[in-house]
Each structure stands twice: as C-alpha cells, then as structure tokens.
Amino acid sequence: MAQSETSLPGRAIHPFGGKLLVLLVLVMLAGLPLAVWLDISTLSKNMLKRQSEDLSSVVSSIRAYYANNVITRVLAAPGEVKPVHNYESVPGGIPIPATLSLELGRVIQEKQANISYRFISDLPFKGRAPHPMDAFEQNALARLRHNPDQEMATVTRAGFSNTYRLITPIIMGAACVKCHNSNPDSPKTDWRVGDVRGIQEVSITQPFAANIFSFKYLLIYFFFVGAAGIGFILLQRRQGAIIQAVNRELEATNNFLATISLKISRYLSPQIYKSIFSGQRDVIIHTERKRLTIFFSDIKDFTATTERLQPEALTSMLNEYLTEMSSIALKYGGTIDKFIGDAILVFFGDPETRGAAEDAKACLYMAVDMQKRLGELKAKWRHEGTERPFIVRMGINTGYCNVGNFGSNDRMDYTIIGAEANLAARLQTAAEAGTIVISYETYALVQDIVIATPLPPITMKGIQREVIPYAVEGLLSSADRSLHVLSEHMSGLDLHLNLDQVEASDTGRVRTALLDALAALDQKLARPPSAAS
Fold this sequence. Notes:
Domain Guanylate cyclase: 293-428
Pfam family, one: Guanylate_cyc
Organism: Dongia soli
InterPro entries: A/G_cyclase (IPR001054), Adenylyl/Guanylyl_Cyclase_3/4 (IPR050697), Nucleotide_cyclase (IPR029787), Tll0287-like_dom (IPR021796)
Structural class: alpha+beta
Keywords: Membrane, Transmembrane, Transmembrane helix
Number of helices: 13
C-alpha cells in the first residue's frame, strides 16, 4: 500500500534571534563608555576655552589698568620714576605694560605648569631679540590686524591631553601710541589708537581623562549596568544552550515518532491513519452504523495457482497485484479494510463520504479500473513466464453496516461488520472469472453509468430477501450513453476495450484485430471435434 511519510516536527528555536539579542546588548554596553568619553572630551575643551578666555581677559585688564592709571600718571609728571622695559637695571624704573604682561604670565606659569603665556610682536624695539612665531601665530596676527574682533583659537590633542591655544590682539591705547611714536628705538612711529601691535597668547594643557572622575556616580551606574548586562548575556547563553539541548532531544524524539508513525501507516488505511494522527478520531472502542458501498475481490483458483508457481514467484506476483490494486483504491478514495490472503476488502462512505450515489460510482469506477490494470499485469506476467496469471472476481454491494473500532482495549481493528459486507463477498463468488457483479442496491445508484445484465436471484444467511445480482458488462459515457468499456477475462481470453482511449487513427486496426479474432474463433468452431483436439 503506498503511503506518504508523515512526521511530527518539533518547533525548533532558531539561534539567530538569541545571537542578535546578545550583539545588541554588547553594542549598547560598548556605546555607553564611548558616549561618556565623547562628553568628557567636549567638556574638557569647553573648560580649557573658558579658562583661557578668563586668563587672557584678566591679563589684558591688568595691563590696560596699569597703562591707563599708572604709566599715564608717571608720564604726565616727569621725575625719577621711569617706565622702561628693563626696569630692573634702571634706578627708578618701572615696567612698561608689555613687560608687566610678560611678568604676570611668568608668575602664572610658575604656579600653573600647564599654563603658558606669550606677549609677542613682529615689530620689536631695536636691540631686542625678535619673537619667533609659528604658522598659527603668524596667521592669527595677520587676520587680527585685518579684523581685531575675531577670536583665534585652536585645540590640539596629544595622547590623553588637550591643549587649547587662545590668541587675542594687543590694541594700542593712547599712552602706548605716545610712548612708541616718541621712542627712538621704536621700529614704527606712526601708531594710532586702535592699531594691533601684536598678539597675546594663552595656552592651557589639561589631561581630559582626569575629568572622568567628575562622572563618578554615572560611572558607578554604568558599572552596575554593565555587570547586569554581562550577567544577562551569560544567563541568556545558558538558557540558549538548554533550549538547544531540548530541541535536539525533541528532534530526536520527533524523528523516532515519525519513523514509528510511518511504520504504523503501513498497517492502516490512509484515511484512518490521517484521522487518528490528526486528532479527529479517538482510539477507543466505538462503532457507528453507516450506509457503505462494499467491494470484495478474490483470485479465482488461487490454491491451484500456488501449486503451479514457485513460492518466490507467487510472493512477487501477489505483492505486485496487491500494491497495484491498493493504489487504484486510494486513487478513488476507497478505505482499504484488509487483505484476507489473496482477497481485498474495500469500502466507501467512511470516514469520508460524498453521498451514497457518488460513493457507489467511485467504487464501480475503481473496480473497472482494477480489471483494466489486471489485463495489463497478465500480459506482463505471461511475458515473464507465468502460463496462467491471476484471474479476479469482484463483488459490490451497498447497505448499512457497523463501522468503527472493534476489539479490546489492548488490540483494536478498524473494520466493518454486517450482513451487507458478507453479501459483497457472496456476490464475488457468484461472479464469473474476470467479471464484476453488483447488487440491485448498488445498481440503482449507478444505473446511469453502467450496462449490466441481471442474473438469477440468490439467497444467503442473514438476509431475508432475495438478492438479484447484476453482471457488469461495461460503462456508459456521460456524453452519449454508449458502451465505451468492454472487459472480459477467462482462460484463453483477455479482452479489455476502452473506446474512449482508442485514437481515431487506430480504429481500423482495432476493428481488424477483432474481426481476425472472430474469424479464428469461427474456424475453430467449424473444425470436427477430432481436428480440434
């Protein structure tokens, strides 16, 4: 019996989802320190900028105050006090504003090693060393002379430290203009108030990693979040391993159950197997009374055939016969009840039905198709060396039977019981070899598709009425009701003619073959008995 494999697949958990979740958690954990690092770097730059601006503003304010309120008063009242750049070597000398700025920068740098201060110009007095300037300073001076309101700043990073450089312009005030324009050592004597003489630069270096401790509470929070995330990942991986182990066990169990179910399916009709394993039918002792069409077939003179054939050849032929017949039964929707030696019991109407008439027609079509296939198999078996292949008789009956699970709680059999099933077997015995016999109950349901001849009534135990069998001679086409299938099988004759399958171009050959057969038969009948023997 052909049967497709049915498995019970487990619902495996795909590992891709777990890996994606772990990757997402790791990315989030890695992103937190990066975000903190970027915030700290930005904070460091802002702090350096503010400190540089504050320091530059303080020095500039002090220098302006000194120039306007000290130097101006000294110059307005000449005396022993003299504002000079080398005030330390001149009696009564006091520093000029530029020198004061440099002195303030030096004092600040001594106290704060990370702070550097420069007061430089590209126009030094005669006898003074020129001030070296890098590209940033030269560019800043040129741009500030063009527009002194600009802010010139840059940030450089070396390792884990940021260096912020702020350059502001040195603006010539009234006292500065008067002093410079009158001093014989000045390289320029046409200064005006508001001119940019040079630049003032404040550089502050700070390791921005030191600011990380400003976020100690946030870091503590991140630490616990990271620990929780790692713990979650470890727990998830452990659960994933457990789930995978369970899935492997389920897969092995499912494979085992699939193998067992496939083996069990060989002992059940596909309809019964499907209804049981889909949960539609319970495996309990339970029967119903239904109107069924029952088919019963048997091989004529099977016992004599077994004596003529070797056991191996007989087994091969019987298995091929049962396989082919089972395939045809499944094709038409029949429920294969059982094989009784060489006999086959099939019924229509349970567990699925299309109505009594359609069930009966399907059963009749199945029987005709079986006889057709038998004709092909007999030709094959004769070609293989079997002198007398199987000749099968078939009986069909329609009536009410008990159908369901019969047996005990330990061993059950899904089958049918009733006199109508026995009648199908009785009709089979009444059939000629290679023919199909149906009861009147079946004939009444299929009379629009069949040509059948009534036979003498029969009686049987368990059925009070006389049963009128009908010998099936052929089927009618739905188009013109003409005979389109002729099937006759007996010793010396295997005839199966399906007019629907005969091509128009082959009708002449078919007619010639039939006429030749009739002529040969007439010639045999015309011979004297001695010649015939």
